[in-house]
Design goal:
Blueprint (H helix, E strand, L loop, with lengths): L4 E5 L2 H16 L4 E5 L10 H7 L6 E2 L7 H18 L4 E5 L3 H13 L3 E6 L9 H12 L2 E4 L2 H9 L7 E3 L3 H9 L5 H8 L5 E3 L5 H4 L2 H15 L3 E4 L6 H6 L8 E3 L5 E2 L11 E2 L17
Parallel strand pairs: 1-2, 1-4, 2-3, 4-5, 5-6, 6-7, 8-9, 9-10
Antiparallel strand pairs: 11-12
Helix pairs in contact: 1-7, 3-4, 4-5
Length: 294
């Protein structure tokens, strides 16, 4: 039996990036293995994407959950060391810049497992962002660097990465968007939220935006100013919900907060198409996902 290609997924952005890659490799006949680290575990942060995007059920879930950056990364590192030892892959594919990506990359590098990084070379040049630290380290460990833009090629070149390791492949998030276009029910969503034809969508969850009450208050004020001109809908990330609400997020009549969570009418792992129900679904683990990290 051929050694598989192992995909390591852990947080919401990973799922959307991985779906078209896994689909394409399956079409080419490659054996694949999916590891979910469990960094994101709430239904709307994890399981729903497996249903919506047609991702295969994970072969293993490390269930690392929430925690500090150090604890989360360390648990992924420990779990992936065991996974790679017991199921040695031909290639490990990691996605984006979350703690799961860094932990898996460190485990693979120490065990000599070949590594590929999807969405390599992105830079904010802001070292106060945990993701920026993660992505710089990950790119130094990977033999294959799949980039989404020409700018990323330049960033990697300046960091000394070899040109033959860098491949401009485009953005898998766009592949996921295009594959999902016929499933969007825009009119129904707009009606459900009481939105007019023209509206603004906003999202806030960076620690620098929502962990500081003064910063959260300033952003809420800015959103209220926008809402004076156009209706605003904001799907609030669990991380910032309490801080933004405390700053008065819901006080403006034209600022619409999207429902917190929902449940699916079909099993998350059944492969059957699901439909949203407005029934609230709580996190299944503790601490709850309001403590989620990068």
């Amino acid at each position: 039996m051929r050694a598989p290609i192992t995909h390591v997924l852990g947080a919401r952005p990973n799922f959307m990036k991985a779906a078209p890659v896994i689909r394409a490799l399956a079409a080419l006949g490659h054996d694949q293995r999916v590891v979910h680290t469990g960094q994101h575990y709430d239904e709307r942060m994890s399981e729903v994407f497996f249903v919506q995007l047609g991702l295969p059920r994970p072969d293993v879930n490390l269930e690392v959950g929430s925690g500090s950056h150090a604890r989360q990364t360390a648990e992924v590192l420990t779990g992936m060391e065991l996974e790679f030892t017991e199921n040695s892959p031909a290639l490990a594919v990691v996605y984006g810049d979350v703690n799961s990506t860094l932990g898996a990359a460190l485990a693979a590098a120490k065990l000599g497992v070949p590594l590929a990084h999807v969405e390599a070379g992105l830079r904010s040049f802001d070292n106060s962002m945990p993701e920026e630290i993660n992505r710089r380290l990950i790119d130094q460990l990977c033999a294959l660097l799949f980039v989404t833009s020409a700018e990323a090629i330049g960033h990697l070149a300046r960091e000394g990465r070899p040109a033959d390791a860098v491949h401009l492949v485009g953005n898998p998030m766009i592949d996921t968007l295009l594959a999902s276009m016929d499933r969007f029910e825009v009119a129904a969503a707009r009606t459900g939220l009481g939105l007019p034809d023209r509206y603004v969508v906003a999202t806030l969850h960076r620690p620098s935006n929502v962990d500081d009450p003064a910063a959260a208050a300033a952003l809420v004020l800015a959103l209220h100013e926008v809402a004076d001109e156009l209706d605003v809908v904001i799907p609030v990330h669990p991380r910032g919900r309490a801080a933004l609400k405390a700053a008065g997020l819901g006080a403006h009549p034209r600022l619409h907060i999207a429902p917190r969570s929902a449940t699916w009418s079909s099993s998350p792992w059944s492969g059957a198409p699901g439909r949203w129900s407005p029934t609230p679904a709580a996190c299944r683990r503790r601490p709850p996902c309001s403590g989620c990290r990068a």
